Amino acid sequence: MSRVQLALRVSDLEGSIAFYSKLFGTEPAKLRPGYANFAITEPPLKLVLIEGEADEPTRMDHLGVEVEGSGLVTDATKRLTDAGLVTLEENDTSCCYALQDKVWVHGPGGEPWEVYTVKADADTLGKSAADSADGDACCGTWTPSTRSATVRNPTRSAPSDALWLLGRVPGEPPAQPRRPVADDGARTDRTAPRWSH
């Protein structure tokens, strides 16, 4: 089963766990220092809570789609790169107390999305304390210069700004692809991404 992931960075982890347990009527599926996740059945959602700074308001950390296996991550990577998006692949990476394969993209507003699969449990939130100090923490903001992974479809040789991450050239408007429309107004070229078998 595939499901959407919403990762929030929260200042009050215990209070957030209590609130979301009541909201969704379920206890966390995984609870570790500075981290909790909920595997919500209805609606299908993976809610991740990551402990932030004590004085910061809750904010979205990243979004994701959890899939059932590495083959589906590979399929998503191909689909995204074929669509012209800049992707970052990470295989056998330790993140959120799990060993994962994943691919990252950024939406037009800079919001990070990952398509990932969990291969096994891990003992740490991120790769290591040194990675966190270098800005290479679990689920952190990435640029090809800060993460050691495979980047596909770079449109510039020197990644220096968010527009590069979005696959756009500074000063140029974003491309607006034309989509064929049927007589009833529905898009005719739309095929849903395959998130599961």
Automatic annotation (TrEMBL):
Biased composition (Basic and acidic residues): 180-197
Top-level lineage group: Bacteria
Polar residues bias spans: 147-158
GO MF term (any one): dioxygenase activity
UniProt-listed GO biological process terms: response to cadmium ion
InterPro entries in alphabetical order: ArsI/CadI-like (IPR049789), Cadmium-induced_rsp (IPR052393), Glyas_Bleomycin-R_OHBP_Dase (IPR029068), Glyas_Fos-R_dOase_dom (IPR004360), VOC_core (IPR037523)
Residue ranges of every copy of the VOC domain listed in the record: 2-118
Residue span of region Disordered: 147-197
NCBIfam families: ArsI_CadI_VOC
Protein name as annotated: Glyoxalase/bleomycin resistance/dioxygenase family protein
Organism in which the protein naturally occurs: Actinomadura physcomitrii
